[in-house]
Structures are given as structure tokens and as C-alpha cells.
Amino acid sequence: MALHLRTAGWKRFHPARLRGRRAAKAILAAGATAFVAGAGILAGTLAAPMLGIGGPTVTEMGPIPISAPMTGANGLSALTDLTSRAEVAMLDRPVNGVAFHMAIPAIDYSSTVYEGVSLPTLEKGPGHYPSTAWPGHPGNVGIAAHNVYWLAFSRLKAGDTVELQTRRGLFVYRITGSKIVEPDDQSELLPSVDGRLTLTTCWPLWAGAYATKRFIFSAVAIGGVA
Q: pTM surpassing 0.85?
């Protein structure tokens, strides 16, 4: 006669019940293992580019952007330097035939300087030699005029200052001397590495178109805007 257990613990220890619990535990263990493994793979994938493991090499990624501005020899950023040069180029040029303004306080002289030294240009006033430097730049700035416009220059002497006002600023030169040369002598207009100013006209000043010589004043730069 079969013995039937009716106690409260019978279902707990029934063989079928035990097998079900073992299967559930196995499933939970497998799931936990899979979760841990998946988390590890994900973490490894995210960390790989930072650690240089399995990610693209520097060569494959291309150049690394530079966050700091590049600087030139003068300490300015390359962009700022280029911008400054562009601004200077826009300002240091003639506009509608006008180059700049010239003033000589010692003789109370003031005049517009035009661009060019052709006869029609010099009939209007002093002209800037286009082949010479621009005020504020290294080199020799050359200005010519008919002697009838520069009669007062007979009173100029070494030490007097010449002011050239451009759209970029004021540039000041000090006269160092003068001399009379042949009319075809261009040596004083040759380029230079420093800042110079050369004023040329015909001599004698009072002779007008009958002048036979060239009268030259030389000056050196002593100040101005940067």
C-alpha cells in the first residue's frame, strides 16, 4: 500500500519541485554571466579609442586639430598678422590720384601730394614717385615738384622736419642736408633698407622752366605710427 505524505513540507522536497528550482537557478546564472560578459565588451569598446586599442591610428584619423593659435615671428597670431597686412595694404595706396599730405612746420608749408610725376600731375602739385617706397615702409620715399611750388624751400635747413600724413597715420622725417646735381642724376632716389625721404625739384628755384640743375633734400625717418 502506497504511503502518501500529506505534510506541509512534502511539496518543498518533491523531486519534480527540486528539478524546477535547479533549472531556474541555472537560467539565472547563465543570464548573469551573459550580462557581465556583455558589459565587459561594451566597456572595452568604449575605452578602445581612448586607449588606442582597436581604434583608428593617428594616421588613419588624419591631423589632430590645433586648438592654440599659430603665432608668427612677431608674436601675433597668423590670422591677426594676415589681417593686419591686408589692412595696411588697403590703407597704404593712393586714392583717386591722391597719395598723402605733406607739411613742413619750419616754413609753414602744407600741400597735397599726388601719385605720379608726369607733367600733368606735377602741374597740380607735388607728386610721389611710384617706383619709390610708401611712407612708413622701409625704403626711400621720393617726392618731386616744380620749383615754382617750392620757392619757400630755399629756407629749409638740416634739422627741419617733414610730416607725411597718410590714411594710416603720421610719419615724420628730419632733413639731413641738400645738394645740387645734374638734371639726369637719379642716384638719390635709389632704394634703401632704412626709412628715408628724398625731395627733388629744379634749380634755381626762381628760374621756373629755365632751371638747368636738380635740387635735392635728403631726410631720415624719426618717428610715426607702427
A: no
In sequence order, what are the residues at sequence separation of 6 or more whose Cβ sits closer than 8 angstroms to the Cβ of residue 47?
53
Between CA 100 and CA 107, with CA 101 as vertex, the angle to 5 degrees is 150
Give per-residue pLDDT as tens, 109-120: 999 999 999 999
Residue where the block lists cell 625704403: 139
Contacts of 108 (CB under 8 A, 6+ apart): 152
Q: Are strands 195-203 and 139-144 parallel, antiparallel or unpaired?
A: parallel
Region for residue 62 given its phi and psi (left: phi exceeds 0; alpha: psi -120 to 50; beta: otherwise): left
3-class DSSP string for the chain:
CCCCCCCCCCCCCCHHHHHHHHHHHHHHHHHHHHHHHHHHHHHHHHHHHHHCCCCCCHHHHCCCCCCCCCECCCCCEHHHHHHHHHHHHHHCCCECCEEEEEEEHHHCEEEEEEECCCHHHHCCCCEECCCCCCCCCCEEEEEECCHHHCHHHHHCCCCCEEEEECCCCEEEEEEEEEEEECCCCCHHHCCCCCEEEEEEEEECHHHHHHCCEEEEEEEEEEEECC
CA-CA distance, 216 to 218, in Å (whole number)? 7
Higher pLDDT, 178 or 83: 178
Q: Are 125 and 114 in contact (CB under 8 A)?
A: yes
Q: Residue 56 has what pLDDT?
A: 36
